[in-house]
Amino acid sequence: MDTNKMVEEYIDKHQDWEAELKKLRSLVLDSGLQETIKWGAPVYTLNGKNILGLGAFKSYVGIWFFQGALLEDKFNKLLNAQEGKTKALRQWRFTALDEIEDGLVRAYIEEAIAKHKEGKEIKSAQVQKTTTMPQELEDAFTKNADLKKAFAKFTPYKQKEFVEYVAEAKRPTTRVSRVTKITPLIFDGIGLNDKYR
Question: Which of 83, 117, 151 is the last residue of a domain?
Fold first, then answer.
């Protein structure tokens, strides 16, 4: 399926924000960035690097700047949607079509492209999180050797996703239900987050 069709499908799924998404998309495409779909949403790249993305939510539509913390933001339009989690990513939210000022949005897009061309980038500090195998998952492997073999076929990254998914549940009953939920995925060779990739 081509990217253009996938972006159009994304817009069709968000009927409440169709006009806003189409306008933002048009402004971004005018800048010459390459359009793709990542994480299920439109993302725009330059030389293979993510510059910005579009997203629609219940109460707003937004434009994400992957290196938004580098932008001057003279008009205070950008915010950090995940304070304490993201260093570089910034978003600009719109709740109505008339809030999208073409010239201003273009200026932010052009500045983001210029920063990329200058080689400016905020690198995220990789925090190595160690997660121990939850007892509930260990117990499932002990009871079912085939499950353990199927799990071993996954890459370490995908194994870690399963382990963290089970381990982050606070209650033992929730951990057990999560093991039950992921068991068919493991047997089918499907990673926990494969549908988002």
Answer: 117
